[in-house]
Input
Amino acid sequence: MDSLVLCSEAKNKELAYAAIQYMTSGEVMSAYHSQVSMFAPIGKDEDYADRAQFEYIYTDSNIDLVPFPAIEGMYKVDDALLRNLQLMQLGQLFPEQVIEETESYVAFELDY
Output
């Protein structure tokens, strides 16, 4: 997972937000995903450039995709989940343990 972060200490938040809006625009992401890294679109205004067998997921209007919520500390959750998924792929965790370990980490680290 990738994230763009707008820091609270940014000297020009409006410019930083405009840069994020531009970088994630359909035109820019279509070019990026077709020329650099073939991934599924991140927005409805982007062309599909990933594997054909998955295109229906992004073009079928009956499937509603929603982004992850923007919450403080989300990068820690993403990092813990990715680390635990990698351990599962290495045979060191079972799927249930991935969820349990990630939930435990979040509860401890983010005090939820």
